[in-house]
Amino acid sequence: MDGDTKTMTFLQEVVDILLAYIVESFDRETKVIDFHYPNELLQLNNWELQDEPATLDDILISCRATLKYAIKTAHPRYFNQLSTGLDMVGLAADWLTSTANTNM
C-alpha cells in the first residue's frame, strides 16, 4: 500500500474504534467499567514500551485494549463530581483542533 492509502486506512480504523466505543458507552446494558486490578491488567496486555516502533496494527490493538478497560464516562450510569456524559460538540471540536493543529 502506498503511504496515503495506508494513512487513510489506519485513521479510518481508529475512527471506527472510537465510534464503536462511544456507541457502547451509551448502552445501558453494558458495564460502566470492566474493572481489573492493575496487576491483572499487566498480565492481560503488554503495556511496556518497546525498543522498536510499534506497527500500525499493534497501535490499533493497543487502542482497543485501552478503551476496553477505560471508564465509560459517557455511560448513562456514570456519575462523577466533576463530569458526566459525553459532550458531542466538545468531542468534535477536540478532533477538529487535533487534526488542524499538529503542534498540540
UniProtKB/TrEMBL annotation:
Main localization, broad class: cytoplasm
Keyword terms, alphabetized: Decarboxylase, Lyase, Pyridoxal phosphate
Cofactor (UniProt): pyridoxal 5'-phosphate
Localization of this protein: Cytoplasm, Cytosol
Entry EC no(s): 4.1.1.15
Assembly behavior: Homodimer.
Family: Belongs to the group II decarboxylase family.
Protein name: glutamate decarboxylase
Species this protein is from: Goodea atripinnis
Gene: GAD2_1
